[in-house]
Write a structure and sequence with these properties.
alpha/beta, Rossmann fold, Arc Repressor Mutant, subunit A, seven-stranded parallel β-sheet, six-stranded parallel β-sheet, 35 helices, 17 strands, about 50% helix, binds adenosine-5'-diphosphate, binds zinc ion
């Protein structure tokens, strides 16, 4: 077994990373001490490594239980691409394939075996597992997506319940349960159902620091807004919509606008769905337009943005759906398009629920989403509060922290509004109150005699939208109430009266009407790295297609970025890049390094233009003067003129080398350069001998440099 102080070495050796993510090291250590573990980490936190690294360091086989065949395949592909012995057994394999994999296991070639629970616990398989245990040993059971064991979770799978038999049959083999589920109810359930023994419990923060959260007021031309948003991003993205019809429509319109996009929803055939999903995972297509049916069980780490075109149903689903961005830890954007016009759609869906209790819960959840969307605090603080976590704010990576909305005193407007509610006898909703305030000539207003009220027309100076914003803010701040029995009538409460009696000020955050800011900033160095990144991205795609694996299996985006920034020029430098193991350097290094070299050379191509002094020398040279004559005319030494001419040659100016160097000397000088390198004139001269002088060598070297 490895010494603990060399865990970092093992991390670099097997996975190419230099440091552990928060929590990982301690989990690995405890796993190496054969402790039962419950690991709760948000998506992208790096759970896999917590059981993979111990599996590689301990003798024997680690059995990984995973619910979905597609996930197994991905993880096994990624491990094998790192030269690690991993395999899976499932129903898609032929009998002989299963046999040969079982043989490999018994020969100790495999460190990680992935299986679905029902197969693992099948009568047929357990005797084989006994054999493995007695011949090479089972080092651990790792239960991925462990929340599937709990009926309290959102993804209960009865077959997971059978796992308790593992504990009975193999009481001494440690168990690691891993999940991204946040609720403590499910966490307790996992411990019980799997009968974990005094497990080490590791709950990582649910904060995802690399995600940028923002909410944009959804414009009436929402599609154009979406298009613009997509065009401002690079890399893969998901657009979530509420309805299938909308998914189809938006995917179609994006295609028409030359964006490569495909739809995904439950109304499509299984085959069409899995084709589209695969094309997305393999980077054949940039955008997946989808209902929430998409995303469960897909494990694409390099999704760079997730846009919610419609309101999500609750904050937990928003967190999970938006959380599909940036699993690789690189910066990613989560944008929510918010318009109060969308609220009735969701209300309608809630109204369809048969159970009044369910309706109440759903309404409360919707309220929380609206609070998030309209909130002026740090978005992270709001989301994490939902998961019972305190976050101090000022994250510097959300719209509210980066572009705080101005707070204004709207006490007088609030008094106007509330007194209008009072004068309408607290029997009407927002729209009617605003109509009265703005002096509308609608029939309904006159019908109730509200055009005669003292508040009629006192709010003409503000738009209906501004009044709506105020009304929502009053509701949020608890300065006014609304009935929830389906009619949404505005009611005054104790605090409303305090406002009316001038005992309380009203502050509201004013949404700027200007268009949402974009963050794109351009600097030339960055532009160069981006160009190279694109080339490496294409190379990765080619290599991936060739092997039929998703591109991220070859290298993560973060590694490509580092390559683009550091431009490693040889294999040794290449191996220093985070995410590159020796194994991968051997497999792909050559191709990546030569792509990088090619890029660097092309970047140098735009040749500098000759300066004035160079041009004067060139003009004299073109009058057929010798080097000495030019030197004399210009009052410089011959050395300087030779320098000029060499530089002119490198700058691709019309200087004929044959006039300056005897043609038969050219080849030997080139040979010498190729043998001893171009850098030192002295070394080249020593190699060539007395018959060659420095000016000749320097001029030929200039010509050689231009040609290479
Ligand atoms: P989870 O299963 O928790 O969603 P993964 O195990 O898939 O997360 O890891 C997410 C990403 O983070 C993967 O691309 C993985 O290679 C990367 N990763 C994990 N640990 C580290 C680390 N210590 N350093 C850098 N990248 C890491
Ligand atoms: Zn913030």
């Amino acid at each position: 077994m490895y010494q603990l102080q060399s865990l970092e070495e093992a991390l670099k050796h097997f996975f190419g990373y230099d440091t552990f993510r928060p929590g990982q090291r301690q989990i690995v250590e405890e796993a190496l001490h054969n402790r039962d573990l419950l690991v709760i980490m948000p998506t992208g936190g790096g759970k896999s490594l917590c059981f993979q690294l111990p599996a590689l360091l301990k003798p024997g086989l680690t059995v990984v239980v995973s619910p979905l065949i597609s996930l197994m395949q991905d993880q096994v592909d990624a491990l094998r691409d790192n030269g690690i012995g991993a395999t899976f057994l499932n129903s898609s394999l032929s009998f002989s394939e299963v046999r040969s994999r079982e043989q490999a296991i018994l020969r100790g070639k495999i460190k990680l075996l992935y299986m679905a629970p029902e197969r693992l616990l099948a009568e047929k398989f357990l005797p084989f597992l006994d054999t493995v245990q007695s011949q090479i040993g089972v080092s651990a059971f790792a239960i991925d997506e462990a929340h599937c064991v709990s009926a309290w979770g959102h993804d209960f799978r009865p077959e997971y319940r059978q796992m308790r038999h593992l504990r009975q049959r193999y009481p001494n083999i440690p168990m690691l349960a891993l999940t991204a589920t946040a609720t403590s109810r499910v966490q307790q359930d996992i411990i019980q159902q799997l009968t974990l023994r005094q497990p080490g419990i590791h709950i990582a923060s649910f904060n995802r620091p690399n995600l940028y959260y923002d909410v944009q007021p959804k414009q009436r031309q929402a599609y154009n807004q979406l298009l613009k948003q997509i065009r401002s991003h690079q890399g893969s993205g998901i657009v979530y919509c509420l309805s299938r019809r909308q998914v189809d429509e938006i995917a179609f319109r994006l295609q028409n606008d030359q964006i490569s996009a495909l739809p995904y929803h439950a109304g499509m055939s299984d085959e069409a769905r899995s084709t589209n999903q695969n094309r997305f995972i393999r980077d054949d297509v940039q955008i997946m337009v989808a209902t929430v049916a998409f995303g469960m069980g897909i494990n694409k780490p390099d999704v760079r943005f997730v846009i919610h075109y419609d309101l999500p149903r609750n904050l937990e689903s928003y967190y999970q759906e938006s959380g599909r961005a940036g699993r690789d830890g690189e910066l990613a954007h989560c944008t929510l398009f918010f318009s109060t016009r969308d609220i009735p759609k969701l209300d309608y869906i809630i109204d369809q629920k048969p159970d009044p209790q369910e309706q109440r819960v759903a309404r409360q959840q919707l309220r929380q989403v609206i609070d998030y969307a309209e909130g002026t605090e740090c978005r992270r603080t709001i989301v994490l509060r939902y998961f019972g976590e305190r976050f101090p704010g000022n994250c510097d990576n959300c719209d509210n922290c980066c572009y705080p909305k101005p707070i204004e005193d709207w006490t007088i407007e609030a008094q106007k509004f509330l007194s209008c509610v009072a004068r309408c006898r607290e029997r009407f909703g927002t729209t009617h109150i605003i109509d009265v305030l703005r002096g509308s000539r609608k029939k309904k207003v006159e019908q109730y005699g509200h055009h005669l009220l003292s508040t009629y027309g006192i709010g003409k100076d503000k738009t209906a939208d501004a009044w709506k914003m105020l009304a929502r803010s009053l509701l949020h701040q608890g300065l006014m109430d609304e009935t929830t029995d389906g009619y949404r009538v505005l009611k005054l409460n104790k605090r409303s009266w305090e406002v009316l009696r001038k005992q309380r000020q009203v502050q509201i955050a004013v949404t700027p009407t200007s268009k949402a800011q974009t963050l794109a900033e351009i600097n030339p160095r960055k532009a160069e790295a981006e160009l190279l990144f694109e080339r490496l991205y294409r190379l990765r795609k080619q290599l991936a297609d060739f092997q039929s694996v998703p591109p991220y299996v070859i290298f993560a985006d973060s590694s490509l970025k580092l390559m683009a920034r550091n431009k490693p020029k040889n294999l040794e430098e290449f191996t220093q890049i985070s995410g590159v193991t020796d194994y991968k350097a051997n497999q792909y290094g050559e191709q990546f390094v030569s792509e990088i070299r090619g890029f660097c050379q092309e970047q140098q191509l735009p040749v500098p233009l000759p300066s004035d002094t160079h041009i004067k020398t060139l003009q004299l040279y073109q009058q057929d003067l010798s080097v000495e004559e030019i030197a004399e005319r210009r009052g410089f030494t011959s050395r300087t003129i030779i320098n000029h001419l060499s530089e002119l040659i490198e700058m691709q100016q019309p200087v004929d080398l044959n006039r300056l160097v005897a043609p038969e000397k050219k080849q030997p000088i080139i040979k010498a350069i190729q043998t001893v390198g171009e850098h030192s004139l002295r070394t080249i001269r020593e190699h060539l001998g007395e018959n060659y002088d420095y000016p000749e060598i320097q001029l030929v070297r200039a010509w050689w440099r231009r040609e290479h």
